Amino acid sequence: MRKNPLAALAVFMLFASQATAQNLVENPSFEDPTVSMGSANDVWFRFGAGANGTSSESTVMPRTGSRHIALQLVGASQFAGVFQNLNTTINPGQIVNFSGWAKNATGAAFNATQEIKLEWQGTPNPPQNFLADLTLGSDYEMFSHTGVAPTGTTGLVVTYAIASGGPGQGDALVYLDDITVTIVPEPATVGLVGLGSLGLVAVARRRRK
Ligand SMILES: [Ca+2]
User: Fold this and answer.
1) 29 alpha carbon to ligand 1 midpoint, in Å?
2) Ligand 1 centroid vs 27 CA: distance in angstroms?
3) What is the pLDDT of residue 40?
4) Is residue 70 pLDDT above 50, yes or no?
5) Edge-first strand listing for the sheet containing 155-163
6) Which of 80, 120, 84, 86 lies closest to 102, judged by CA?
7) pTM exceeds 0.70, yes or no
8) Domain range for 145
9) How does pLDDT run across 113-164, given as a tens digit for each residue?
10) Ligand 1 centre distance from Cα of residue 58 (Å)
11) What is the whole-number distance in angstroms between the Cα of residue 100 and the centre of ligand 1?
């Protein structure tokens, strides 16, 4: 082992990068039950406008596993979605990526807005990062939204919703699955991980000789 300090460093860095890239959401594929009441952390909370804006657990067409979320809007000015309050401390300056998979299941052109939000928690609440996307295909496609935690951030709620509040918007049916929320490594960390990986390659080459 003494011969390979670089290998040890590389392995450490690889583990460190994996720890950094850990998915921070619980129940990312919606395989476990979600809730529509209460305020527990680390649980998907379903919300909607009412009878014409609904958020439901579904088994109709999951992307992976056997379950997903179905969001349905009937008519204009409706909304439906899910959010999760991460039971994790988020510090100002940390870069967070929120991604997942969604599809337009109406069989017609997408006629609503995808709302992908990083709602930073703190006292008072820092401004949120809000991404509005007017397009969505009929096959599962990935959305991705990255933000930097503002001053005063201590935590994070991630929200995915659809809304029909825009001009001419109306009926929508969206399936949602496979959410990932990660802390993006800062450039300095990426550099170290890169160096570690190079070290591992160098050691592997040396061993092969
Ligand atoms: Ca699933």
Assistant:
1) 4
2) 9
3) 82
4) yes
5) 45-48, 79-85, 155-163, 113-121, 129-133
6) 80
7) yes
8) 24-183
9) 999 999 999 999 999 999 999 999 999 999 999 999 999 999 999 999 999 9
10) 9
11) 11
